[in-house]
Amino acid sequence: MSTPRQLAKLALFSGSTAATGSIIAQYFASKTGRAISSGFDSSQAHGINEPVSGFDRLQVLRFFAYGVAFAPITYRWHVFLNAKFPVNALASKPLAHGAASRLHLSDNARAVLKRTVVDQTVFAPLGTGAFVVGMGVLEGQRFSEISERLRVQYPTILLAGYVLWPAAQLINFSLVPLVYRVPFSNVVGLFWNTYLGWNSNRMKREQLLREATRLGSADPAIATV
């Protein structure tokens, strides 16, 4: 088990990679015209005071906070999987104990597969939900907006994660020592957080556009308040 100091370092590293992913996502979004800038003032349309164009520092801070908060949870989850599905050491003399070595390999392969299956069927759905809800809360969204975000964003992110994470976790659970598993996930997560940042930017922009459309179609006296 890591010490509090090691967990703090782990959390800072996780937060830094999450924030970096947000920065990269915003950079590519701005280059491809997918940044949150739609030709209207979102503070009037949505009641928020964040900039709608350029670099969103608050979004980077949100990703950093999420990464810091989630790192200890992820580490303890890996500790649980390690204890629940242990991987045995191979026989020291494989030539003399060939059958035993093959048995160990078979047991280890099953343990790694079980870890991956449990991780992807239990932790991945919960982690995806925590991200969507957590980012909505950090953005100050109303309950109805977070519910809508869950309905639209959650399935997309979960399915996208199943393209990347099963293979990454097979490598992680089979080759990476426990103490380095969260950092390994964070390195892979740099690409994942870039995708999450892009997806969050797109979702936020679409919400602002819907709100602006609603205000535009309302009574002019109301829309100009």
What is the chain-wise order of helices and strands? HHHHHHH
- Radius of gyration using CA atoms only: 22 Å
Q: Give me the number of helical elements.
A: 7
What's the overall geometry? elongated
Strand content: under 5%
The end-to-end span amounts to 57 Å
Mean pLDDT: 81
For the largest beta-sheet, the strand count, sense and barrel status come to: none
- Specify the helix fraction band: over 70%
> What's the number of structural domains?
1
Count of DSSP E strands? 0
Query: What class would the helix/strand composition place it in?
Result: mainly alpha
Low-confidence stretches: 34-53, 218-225
Can you offer a commentary on this structure?
This is Protein SYM1. Belongs to the peroxisomal membrane protein PXMP2/4 family. Keywords: Membrane, Transmembrane, Transmembrane helix. It is found in: Membrane. The chain has 225 residues and is mainly α. The protein has one domain. The chain is built from 7 helices and no strands. Helix 3 packs antiparallel against helix 4, helix 3 crosses helix 6 and helix 5 packs antiparallel against helix 6. The C terminus is likely disordered.
